[in-house]
Design brief:
CATH architecture: Beta Barrel
Structural class: mainly beta
CATH class: Mainly Beta
Number of helices: 1
Helix content: 10-25%
Oligomer: single chain
Distance between the termini: 41 Å
């Protein structure tokens, strides 16, 4: 019985977000803060806190189907990683969003004696989320996979955004 309560709660959120989306005015821009984690599948599943910012410009004047933007993130692992990517967004429905984002990871590895060494890697991010709309605000559970040097990083969390 307990599982049914969770399913009902999720169904209500999905229903409400569809109603809120239908009633709100169209916006060209979306800015969001990401809070989550990154799990390295190649380092025995090490998970590190991750924060970031996302920006999307909707391409279209009445209904956003496609968008372009910018993602920046900071991963606080044994080394610090700075990520910058340029996503192409696809919105197959009002709330689902998927993206493909080529980008760069700059890894700062700290050595003994306070020295640091910087390495850069090309990455390709594939991801998606479900935007729940509350007026001009959004809350979105988010999941992405980063392909870096034939390895996969799993990035997941929540974005809190605003439409304008």
């Amino acid at each position: 019985m307990r599982n049914y309560k969770y399913l009902l709660l999720i169904a209500l959120f999905l229903f409400y977000s569809q109603i809120a989306m239908a009633e709100e005015a169209y916006h060209d821009h979306h800015v969001a803060v990401f809070v989550g984690a990154t799990t390295c599948t190649y380092e025995h599943g090490i998970t590190s806190p991750t924060i970031g910012l996302d920006y999307e410009y909707y391409l279209g004047h009445t209904s956003p189907i496609f968008g372009i933007g910018l993602m920046v993130e900071l991963v606080d692992a044994e080394h610090i990683e700075y990520i910058a990517a340029v996503p192409a967004y696809f919105h197959p429905s009002g709330s689902f969003k998927f993206w493909l984002a080529p980008g760069i990871i700059e890894r700062e590895e700290r050595g003994a004696g306070g020295s640091s060494e910087i390495h850069e890697f090309f990455m390709l991010r594939i991801g998606g989320d479900y935007d729940m709309h509350f007026g001009s605000y959004t809350v979105s559970p988010t999941f992405s996979a980063d392909l870096v040097n034939n390895e996969i990083l799993m990035v997941y969390g929540v974005t809190l955004g605003i439409l304008f």
